[in-house]
Design goal:
- The complex is a heterodimer of chains A (about 325) and B (about 270).
- In chain A, about 40% of the residues lie in helices and about 15% in strands.
- In chain A, helix 2 packs parallel to helix 3.
- Chain A is built from 11 helices and 10 strands.
- Chain B has one domain: Dihydropteroate synthase-like (TIM Barrel, Alpha-Beta Barrel).
- Chain B contains 10 helices and 8 strands.
- In chain B, strands 7-6-5-4-3-2-1-8 form an 8-stranded parallel β-sheet, with helices on one face.
- In chain B, strand 5, helix 6 and strand 6 form a beta-alpha-beta unit.
- The radius of gyration of chain B is 18 Å and the shape is globular.
- Chain B starts with a strand and ends in an 8-residue tail after the last helix.
- The chains are: A alpha/beta (about 325), B alpha/beta (about 270).
- The interface between A and B is medium-sized, with 16 and 11 residues.
């Protein structure tokens, strides 16, 4: 009896993050993601050549509102992006993801030049590929991302977020200065595809685009984001080229939003120790989305990062058909 | 929905003239235009008039391949000609077509495998002609599906044509073709693909484009995967794009119709 397997007509684009000296950058190594022509970890049905990677989320301001468990885990490096990035990579993260929140007027409104200096310090501190996003205010981010793109031309940063309102600016900056971009949509597969079409019409090579379909953490829309991500992946494998890019998800920020991840045991004795609970909340959010096809997991807690990394390793072992 | 562009055919006067003059430009222009409009394949047919069929076929193939990377559908009843063409194709081609007769199957399937080509298999034989009933068509399609299995042709490389006749002369045939498609899609897993010569349905009718696109949508609902058609018929292409979305074959986005009408192969 032959073992019946699914064959796909489409495949996910292969995206390289970062650039070494030979390729115009300064990274010690690059990371390659995508390239699958089967569903996640079904490597007996096709190829799943590149493992999902974990990016540690780094803020350029001190995260005063973060739960105590998270702050404790990072110790004294919070508020020092370069030191934070170094510690994250030494602790097991594959790459770092910097959010330039200080550009927001509510967070001090630092200039685009100052933001670029933060990125420079991080690039000097770590050998890994680096992702950079602005503060979330479209008007300000246009200037910040353009500045960062120009200042580190050739570095092949992963830059974002390119949404419906600002995709043209971010795409142009990535094209001119040779970076990869994050195409971002609000949990809507139709808009996700539409933005990708608009980006592709600007002649951005689609092997330099990563999709952020938006996610919800465990208990707060994880199932819905799983469905969106899975639908996009299945469509891609059936040949939909406008969705066939690797996927990034902001696991840490969504998981740690949950009351269940943060609340102290003293307030909810039946919930158990918050030291374990938050890490597990982030871990379950991450490992669930691994099954939907996520390629870059942006995470917060170093323990969660290492648990998920071990999971990816275990799941990626070759499977032989029974 | 794969549209097989029908325009490079010696029955059109500009292509006929190009063959006579040995002028590749009109052929290249149609190759480019059909590709830009979203054709998945380009049908290549020398028509009836060529004095040297072998030379004419080679000329059309090379003119098209010089302009685009779109794979070709080699359209001839002369299998020696098709085999010569397969040897010239840079990309895996589509053989148009093979009847369900055993001697034709034995000639066509091995050469398809040799050249990694696909086959359009007609749900008819020399003996049966075009059968009226879907039952007979389905039986003949099954012969082709069994042959794919026997010769080792991947099922997705077999395109079953349920056969379309003009609605003004054979009005009761169309529903038989629809039923044939439904049955063919159940024959194997993965199922064979399906195709048809769409514009046959409206031969010598008024409102040809309207009939063509209405037929296409009905056929798609019954399991049609591709059609030999005119990609320059914008309304037809829009109807096909919309049917794909409604049949949940394509994820909706606002530009879905434009996306369907855009090039999927490289233009040189």
């Amino acid at each position: 009896m032959p073992y019946l397997t699914e064959k796909s007509s489409g495949s996910i684009s292969t995206v390289v993050l970062g650039a070494t000296k030979e390729n115009g950058g300064t990274r010690g190594y690059t990371l390659t993601i995508g390239g699958q022509n089967s569903l996640p970890f079904q490597n007996y049905e096709g190829v799943d050549p590149h493992r999902a990677v974990i990016a540690a989320e780094i803020l350029d301001i001190e995260p005063v509102s973060w739960p105590d468990e998270l702050k404790k885990a990072w110790g004294g490096v919070l508020g020092d992006p370069a030191a934070w990035a170094k510690k994250a990579v030494e602790g097991g993260a594959d790459m770092v993801y910097i959010k330039l929140l200080s550009a927001d007027p509510d967070n001090g409104g630092r200039s685009a030049n100052d933001c670029a200096e933060t990125v420079r310090a991080v690039l000097e501190a770590v050998p890994c590929p680096v992702a950079v996003q602005g503060c979330g205010v479209d008007e300000i981010d246009k200037g910040v991302i353009s500045k960062v793109a120009e200042a580190f031309a050739g570095e092949n940063l992963l830059l974002g977020l390119a949404g419906q309102e600002n995709y043209a600016t971010v795409t142009a900056a990535c094209m001119v200065h040779k970076h990869t971009l994050i195409s971002s949509s609000p949990l809507d597969i139709n808009i996700c595809k539409q933005i990708n079409i608009l980006i592709s019409e600007m002649n951005m090579p689609m092997n330099r685009v990563v999709i952020d379909p938006s996610i919800g953490g465990l208990g707060y829309g994880l199932e819905y984001s799983y469905s969106v991500m899975e639908r996009g992946r299945i469509g891609s494998l059936q040949g939909d080229k406008m969705l066939a890019m690797p996927v990034i998800g902001f696991i840490g920020s969504e998981a740690w939003k949950a009351k269940e991840a943060q609340a102290h045991e003293s307030d909810f004795p039946k919930w158990g120790s918050e030291a374990e609970r938050g890490v597990l909340w982030e871990t379950i959010t991450a490992t669930s989305l691994l099954q939907a096809g996520i390629d870059i997991l942006v995470m917060r807690h170093p323990d969660a990062i290492n648990i998920v990394k071990a999971q990816i390793e275990a799941l990626s072992q070759p499977v032989t058909a029974a | 929905m794969e549209i097989i562009g029908e325009r490079i055919n010696g029955m059109f006067t500009d292509i006929k003239q190009a063959i006579i003059d040995g002028n590749p430009e009109p052929v290249a222009a149609w190759a480019v235009k059909q590709t830009q409009l979203g054709a998945a394949w380009l049908d290549i047919n020398i028509g009836a008039a060529a004095t040297d069929p072998s030379k004419a076929f080679k000329f059309l193939i090379e003119a098209a391949q010089g302009a685009v990377d779109t794979p070709l559908a080699l359209d001839s009843t002369n299998y020696d000609l098709i085999e010569e063409g397969l040897a010239l194709c840079k990309h895996p081609a589509l053989i148009n077509s093979c009847h369900a007769d055993r001697h034709k199957i034995e000639r066509v399937f091995p050469m398809a495998i040799k050249y990694n080509a696909s086959i359009i298999g007609l749900a008819m034989s020399e003996e049966s002609g075009i059968p009226k009933s879907s039952d007979v068509r389905v039986g003949l399609a099954m012969e082709l599906v069994a042959a794919a299995d026997e010769f080792g042709l991947p099922m997705e490389n077999l395109y079953i044509d349920p056969l379309i006749l003009p609605v003004n002369v054979a009005q009761d045939h169309f529903i038989e073709a629809l039923e044939t498609l439904r049955q063919v899609k159940l024959m194997a897993d993965p199922s064979p693909k399906t195709t048809c010569g769409l514009s046959n349905v409206s031969q010598r009718c008024a409102n040809r484009n309207l009939i063509n696109r209405t037929a296409l949508v009905l056929l798609m609902g019954a399991g049609l995967d591709s059609a030999i058609a005119n990609p320059a018929d914008t309304d037809l292409m829009d109807a096909a794009a919309t049917a794909r979305v409604l049949l949940n074959k394509e994820i909706y986005c606002d530009s879905y119709a434009d996306l369907f009408k855009s090039a999927r192969h490289t233009i040189h």
